[in-house]
Amino acid sequence: MSTSAASTLRTPSLKLSSLSSRTPLPSAFSVSFNDKRAPSRRYVIVACSGLPSKPTVLVAEKLGEAGLDLLKEFANVDCAYNLSPEELCTKISLCDALIVRSGTKVNREVFESSSGRLKVVGRAGVGIDNVDLSAATEFGCLVVNAPTANTVAAAEHGIALMAAMARNVAQADASIKAGKWQRNKYVGVSLVGKTLVVLGFGKVGSEVARRAKGLGMHVIAHDPYAAADRARAIGVELVSFEEALATADFISLHMPLTPATSKMLNDETFAKMKKGVRIINVARGGVIDEEALVRALDSGIVAQAALDVFTVEPPSKDSKLIQHENVTVTPHLGASTKEAQEGVAIEIAEAVVGALKGELAATAVNAPMVPAEVLTELKPYVVLAEKLGSLAVQLATGGSGVKSVKVTYASSRAPDDLDTRLLRAMIIKGLIEPISSVFVNLVNADYTAKQRGLRIAEERILLDGSPENPLECIQVQIANVESKFASAISDSGEIKVEGRVKDGVPHLTKVGSFEVDVSLEGSIILCRQVDQPGMIGKVGSVLGEENVNVSFMSVGRIAPRKQAVMAIGVDEQPTKETLKKIGNIPAVEELVFLKL
Ligand SMILES: NC(=O)c1ccc[n+]([C@@H]2O[C@H](COP(=O)([O-])OP(=O)(O)OC[C@H]3O[C@@H](n4cnc5c(N)ncnc54)[C@H](O)[C@@H]3O)[C@@H](O)[C@H]2O)c1
Ligand SMILES: O=C(O)[C@H](O)COP(=O)(O)O
């Protein structure tokens, strides 16, 4: 990709088939259940069920027109800039999505105030340090960002600040406008031949490095997570933090603000730098201890600094740092080019609309990454997983006592070739939703389980045979609970249900120790009886008389004329009286109705 093209990059609209294997999964999102009997069924994995016919998107900071146009095709768009925190909290309960830049704090109160309606937060830019990700995850709200469209703009601004600082452009400009002509005062330093250290060799850092090399600088970088061969490919050596500090003439900062990078440049690290070093920061203000920087400037360790970002934005007018003669400042303009803002607006609008539609989000920040092809393959198993979770918990007496669940995946695939995070999330959804008002999705499943003290142990059984299908069967067991259907308790004392996918359709294949075979759609009646002729007919006619349509029926028995379990798939919910009539059939010993 040419660097000039990068700033106007558009994120293509994402469909399952167009995603690469590194595409972060979905959060959200609806996955079509390929069921011949229910072809129109949409299956929501994550966030976006229950949306009104036209969702509402609150755009809380200025967004490029092209992005707004895209949003308006799909949603009601409310552009409300400069909201106070209170106003944002008031508005948010009426919104399905929120789009912000770096100027809006999307904190816990915002998620709390949304009362569960907010499904997606779109950050029109890279840094998500203004969004409380744990709160978003807790509330099952997907966070997406626009990570590529402003890369070049930020890199160009870094280079602009470095050159302007080295030649005192801002100071000389102010001086001349004040009526002075100070040619001797503003003698600068050259860039050519100087060592530039790039701290954070990601998208922006590497573009800065590329450009600085073009200016004849010697460029080295420190980034504990960057690949050395990627750096080498553009002629940059990765060095240790200590070496970086000790050799730099210029240091340009390009890491995210995280607990690990907060105040990374401080009194101690400034003391390790060469006297007269120059610092450029277009990353985040918080990566520098600003008071320590003032001390380093005063002592001459740091000759000059050029800053686009600040710990508090806007910084106070009388801040010593801002007013320092050797400091050049801009008001967080790194991403502010027409091209970048247009690109960011399109990138974020596409991500938010896609998320609201239930498509995959390539830029999800708080959802696990599951490659798209894995998702496609797992679709029917995803449905199976949720239904098994739901059946298992409905079989327990008093669902709130469910604390320990064991999930067993039997597969011919090696464990490394089977990603079960999505399945686990769906089992958790199935286990929790029928017994609570919590909405569980891929974003918040593990968190919600932990909050409820629900332990999920996963086990894999490696089968012989062809690994053509990802899974042979899934088994869900709940320990230490009683069941309202005693036959669901296995020999080892747990509630046990097992299922598999047949011709793309999920089936229940085992309840307790009984083999059954019923397609998991509609609802199910499980009925234990003494195995004898005519039972299917008797139960079937009670249901027929009450106009309840049977979609599937299967009987599993221990041995002829001994106990048997009948699994009956029904399209309609039978009335209590109907169930009572079945229970009154002499050979029937117990029965339970389970909603799917
Ligand atoms: N000023 C602006 O307007 C503007 C515009 C765009 C991006 N940014 C900021 O620039 C920064 C970089 O953005 P990006 O798109 O290149 O992100 P990126 O994720 O592509 O790159 C960040 C890099 O920092 C590295 N890193 C993480 N911890 C580190 C550490 N302790 N030491 C050194 N490196 C570390 C990561 O490995 C990664 O390679 C972010 O803070 C972003 O918010 C600012
Ligand atoms: O992280 C980013 O993308 C930049 O800091 C840009 O922030 P902005 O969208 O507020 O300009």
From TrEMBL:
Keyword Membrane on this protein? no
Q: What is its EC number?
A: 1.1.1.95
Q: Which Pfam families match?
A: 2-Hacid_dh (PF00389), 2-Hacid_dh_C (PF02826), ACT (PF01842), PGDH_inter (PF19304)
Q: Name one GO cellular component term.
A: chloroplast stroma
Its annotated pathway reads: Amino-acid biosynthesis; L-serine biosynthesis; L-serine from 3-phospho-D-glycerate: step 1/3
Per the record, the major location class is plastid
Q: Which UniProt keywords apply?
A: Amino-acid biosynthesis, Chloroplast, NAD, Oxidoreductase, Plastid, Serine biosynthesis, Transit peptide
Q: Which SMART domains match?
A: AdoHcyase_NAD (SM00997)
- Key word Amino-acid biosynthesis present in the record? yes
Q: Which PROSITE patterns match?
A: ACT, D_2_HYDROXYACID_DH_2, D_2_HYDROXYACID_DH_3
Query: Where is this protein localized, as stated in its record?
Result: Plastid, Chloroplast
Q: Which domain of life is it from?
A: Eukaryota
Q: Which reaction does it catalyse?
A: (2R)-3-phosphoglycerate + NAD(+) = 3-phosphooxypyruvate + NADH + H(+)
Annotated GO biological process: L-serine biosynthetic process
- Stretches assigned to the ACT domain: 524-596
Q: What CDD domains does its record include?
A: ACT_3PGDH-xct (cd04902), PGDH_4 (cd12173)
The molecular function terms of the Gene Ontology recorded here are:
NAD binding; phosphoglycerate dehydrogenase activity
Under PANTHER family, the record lists: D-3-PHOSPHOGLYCERATE DEHYDROGENASE 3, CHLOROPLASTIC (PTHR42938:SF5), FORMATE DEHYDROGENASE 1 (PTHR42938)
Q: Which family does it belong to?
A: Belongs to the D-isomer specific 2-hydroxyacid dehydrogenase family.
Name this protein carries in UniProt: D-3-phosphoglycerate dehydrogenase
Native organism is Acer saccharum
Kindly list the organism's lineage.
Eukaryota, Viridiplantae, Streptophyta, Embryophyta, Tracheophyta
